[in-house]
Specification:
Number of domains: 2
Shape: flat
Largest sheet: none
Radius of gyration: 26 Å
Distance between the termini: 55 Å
Number of strands: 0
Oligomer: single chain
Order of helices and strands: HHHH
């Protein structure tokens, strides 16, 4: 096998192992207060394996310049989005303009140029 074939195989293998371990974790998940079917030792081994797999996948991505530095977003985590007030104004003006144009509202050339200057 060539180096590319080996790396493709490794990527597929790591992906399959990761998906399998995650499926096992999901399938054995229990409600709070109930006894988990897997021992704590087995749970730790699964966590360690996932850590190794993800570390190797990240290393391969960095080697091939395909790593994106994306982080997971958790549903119970508060997220803050920032935006520019000027961008918001431009977006609202564009939407309003397209709404009027889409409903057959006609404006004069001079009015259109004034609106264009606000957008740009």
């Amino acid at each position: 096998m060539s180096k590319d074939n080996n790396q493709d195989f490794e990527i597929r293998l790591l992906s399959a192992v990761r998906k399998t371990l995650i499926s096992v974790a999901k399938d054995t998940m229990t409600k709070p207060g109930l006894r988990h079917p897997l021992t704590e030792g087995t749970q730790k081994v699964i966590t360690d394996c996932l850590d190794i797999v993800v570390s190797r996948q990240t290393a391969i991505e960095k080697e091939t310049s395909t790593h994106t530095n994306m982080k997971p977003v958790f549903t119970d985590e508060e997220t803050v989005q920032s935006f520019s007030i000027d961008d918001l104004k431009k977006t609202l003006i564009k939407k309003t303009l397209f709404h009027f144009l889409g409903t057959g509202f006609f404006i004069k050339q001079r009015q259109y140029k004034n609106i264009q200057s606000l957008i740009s």
